[in-house]
Design a protein that fits this description.
With 393 residues, the chain is an alpha/beta fold. It is built from 12 helices and 9 strands. Helix 10 packs across helix 11.
Length: 393
């Protein structure tokens, strides 16, 4: 596990060295501190591969990156073709929903752009609390972060240089909404990060006994086989069925080398929902699952806090800067937005995203998602009308 300091020094000097060897104290992240005390923390949850954001995010719902070993735009533009846990859930007649704030990153999965899923997307601001209050949350819900840091709506995704206190407020709101829902006693919330962000860790990454998901090899020059995991990432499991103060270590199986990683999410969903489809890949068939932590108790807890600590201090000494250029991750989200809009030829993508400011990108993303969903719902309505017309003949 050498190299953290050396690489940080090469990239950003001593200031970055100090940053990657540092951590937040509990008072700076009071919501996480409270959830860790009240529920369960994984101390061996790894990123699915030692790569960047998008490949690891793809593993969360599909147990593979389909050969994507870095954030390569030409693969992200058309969407990745693999089957997802959303498809498995839908095929068994269960429900899922995506609650988004700017733009849903799950639309990097090509299958989620299909017309039949268009009504699975909901505005977090307008729908999540209402669905929770009325007890109509779906079987499987994904809550997406706000990725663009604007004055009216600060980013809450914890990406640098966003204010981590906004992420704390976001998690607090989600928890308290679920806690007040009539569905609380049948709920579980898992919080994790796609990759470690360069921060130091002393635990070696598993490099043996990790199966390639589907045999797809990454591109030159590394030809990565996706046969090892990445660095550990935080993971918290919240549920009234989870014992207070639980620390979850290495899983019991299904193989001697199994670990908790992002593929553990679809693997656990398959067990919890008794899904009839096969595993998505060899990776979720191998990954550890955490359903047993919902069965230790005979009844749900009644002592779960209704409110979490207030987030009283900002962790950044300046306001959002809407005029700055985009991060690499934000540029990838703009590539996705342009496809949802359907008006920008691929040759113009690089020029477009490179000249955008954060404020412009935020507005563009909002408009692109609105156009995509409106067009999809209009087409779906026409199809239904056509079917009704044909059935009446």
């Amino acid at each position: 596990m050498n190299g953290f300091v050396q690489q940080a020094n090469e990239i950003g000097g001593l200031g970055m060295v100090k940053a990657i060897m540092s951590a937040f104290d509990p008072s700076s992240v009071p919501v996480y501190a409270a959830l860790a005390d009240e529920f369960a923390v994984f101390d061996r949850w790894f990123a699915s591969c030692p790569t960047s954001t998008q490949p690891n995010r793809l593993f969360v719902h599909s147990a593979t990156a389909h050969g994507l070993s870095s954030n390569i735009r030409r693969y992200l533009v058309p969407g990745l073709p693999q089957k997802t846990i959303f498809d498995s859930i839908h095929d068994d007649g269960l429900s899922f929903g995506i609650y988004y704030q700017n733009i849903p990153a799950v639309l990097f999965y090509r299958s989620l752009r299909r017309l039949k899923y268009v009504n699975k997307f909901h505005s977090y601001k307008h729908a999540f609390k209402e669905h929770a209050r009325s007890g109509t949350l779906p079987n499987y819900a994904v809550i997406e972060q706000h990725f663009f840091d604007t004055k009216g709506s600060p980013a809450n995704d914890d990406h640098p240089s966003h204010d981590v206190s906004e992420g704390q407020k976001f998690i607090k709101e989600i928890y308290e909404t679920l806690r007040a829902s009539p569905q609380w006693n049948e709920s579980a919330l898992i919080i994790t990060y796609d990759e470690h962000g360069g921060f130091y860790d002393h635990v070696p990454t598993p490099v043996e006994g990790v199966p390639s998901p589907d045999g797809i090899v990454g591109p030159a020059p590394f030809y990565f086989k996706f046969d090892r995991l990445g660095v550990r990432v935080p993971a918290i499991l919240v549920s009234p069925w989870v014992q207070k103060g639980t620390v979850i270590h290495k899983p019991d199986g299904p193989t001697p080398t199994s670990e908790f990683e992002h593929s553990s999410i679809p693997a656990t969903m398959k067990k919890l929902f008794n899904l009839t489809s096969d595993h998505l890949t060899k990776r979720d068939a191998w990954a550890g699952t955490f359903e047993k932590y919902f069965t230790i108790r005979n009844t749900p807890r009644t002592d779960c806090p209704e409110k979490l600590p207030e987030v009283k201090k900002t962790l950044r000494p300046f306001e959002p800067k809407e005029e700055v250029t985009l991060s690499e991750f934000q540029k990838e989200m703009m590539v996705l937005a342009s496809q949802l809009y359907g008006v920008h030829p691929r040759r113009h993508l690089v020029e477009m995203v490179d000249r955008m400011s954060v404020g412009e990108a935020s507005r563009y993303a909002n408009e692109a998602v609105e156009v995509f969903l409106k067009n999809g719902r209009r087409k779906l309505q026409r199809l239904r009308q056509l079917r009704e017309s044909n059935s009446n003949k």
